[in-house]
Amino acid sequence: MNGNTKAWGIKEQNELFAAGGAQHQQWGVHITRLAPGDGCVIIDWVSELPEGQPGKEALRFQVEYGLRGEADKSVHDASGPSGSYTIAGVINGSDYEIRLLAIDGPTGDIAASSPMRLARPGVVPGTVINYIHPEDYTFNFSGRSTASPSIIRLPDGALLASHDIYWGLSGQNVSTIFRSEDGGQTWRYVTYLYPCFWGKLFLHRDRVYMLACSTEYGDLLIGGSADSGETWSPPRVIIEGGSREKGGPHKAPMPVVAHRGRIWSAVEYGSWSTGGHGAGVVSAPEDADLLDPANWTASPFLRYDAAWPGAIEGGNVPGILEGNVVVTPEGQLVNLLRYQTDGGTPNYGRAILLDIDQDQPQAPLQFRKVIPFHGNLSKFAVYYDPQSSSYWSLVNRVTTPFVSQRNILTLVKSDNLEEWEIVQDMLDYESNGWHEDRTKVGFQYVDWFMDGDDMLVASRTAINGAFDFHNANYTTFHRIGNFRRLGEKRGDAQ
């Protein structure tokens, strides 16, 4: 499947498994969302029974769960062919096996069951959007880690969030959409997008779009939804893909910005195996059909140059990636990029600014400046706030010799994009005395937007038994209240 012939929006797992080429039986009952919490696990499910099975009106549904590896399981009645159930009284830090059963009412036989899922309850900062246990292979054709969170507010007031399903060297080709009707307090599953990876949800003229890749270094795609993410158009190819070995489009859920009659977003091209990534942008006229690839322009891709003034000395694989298109105070368009400085001198605390030719979108970017920056070794999103006349970001500040540290999430601000100040640590594992190895905890790759006086945040969160800090097991939601006043008084991410 090349990503431009079939609509996105796979509602159920049977169809997803078939599209992904997974060798999976037709289960009929699917757990669409797991949300482990303090002494509990919330499960959501839907059912789609194959031909020959009893009708849904003849079925009753049950939740079966128990400690991993133990034969004895608890069974509780569930509400119906779709719904939500909270398993209470479970032990934090222990793994549980969970599945949904569809029982034939007249005979008592199991008509269908979900795949067995794994969950580990525990205290979680924020609200769980979704969870995947690192040893849950249900989606292994794509991966088994939650990654690349994205979040927007819809015109009807609801929140829409997404994440892809990642594992190194796996298929990396599925994203999941969730919706909240109550400001992020509760979430429900909407659909799967396949193939879709590294995706950014954005709104343009009250229509939802997803800018993504088909897989790691695959086609750069765009698809749209006219019904708030419930169903999706066929995705269209903006830039043809490559491979890990030869290089291809690279991105993350980075900002999509309107400026001077065009919409812009940063994209890179390359791969780690080819020595890094070149930085560029894609853009299209604001009044154009965004689903027509002919309306998109891609700049050439500027490779990192160790001779740039202020560049680090040495480094493991120095380079630039995951850029932010931002408008400077003077009205110029720039790309503010993550700078891979680990192993270099200095090994932390720098970012790179490139100039974008806003009058010639087909022109290559130009080096502007190396700047001091907190949290340069992980993806960060930068947005301008007209109310405070400041730029804001949430970054992974490093406080230990382990420079890949992502277990502190820090609010930072700048008046000019070049000088950044720390406002406040919003999520701080280091100071909270958590029980886990610090290298297995992360609040990272956050996507966020300003919502009145608050920031609404989606985080790729690794905690409570993640594989490591990088391969997260949660996507979590957080609200940072009165963010402009933080630094003046104590505040916390909720």
UniProtKB/TrEMBL annotation:
InterPro entries tied to this protein: FN3_sf (IPR036116), Sialidase_sf (IPR036278)
Highest taxon listed in the record's lineage: Bacteria
SUPFAM superfamilies: Fibronectin type III, Sialidases
Stored Gene3D superfamilies: 2.120.10.10
CDD domains: Sialidase_non-viral
TM stretches of this protein: none
Region forming the signal peptide: none
Protein name from the UniProt record: Exo-alpha-sialidase
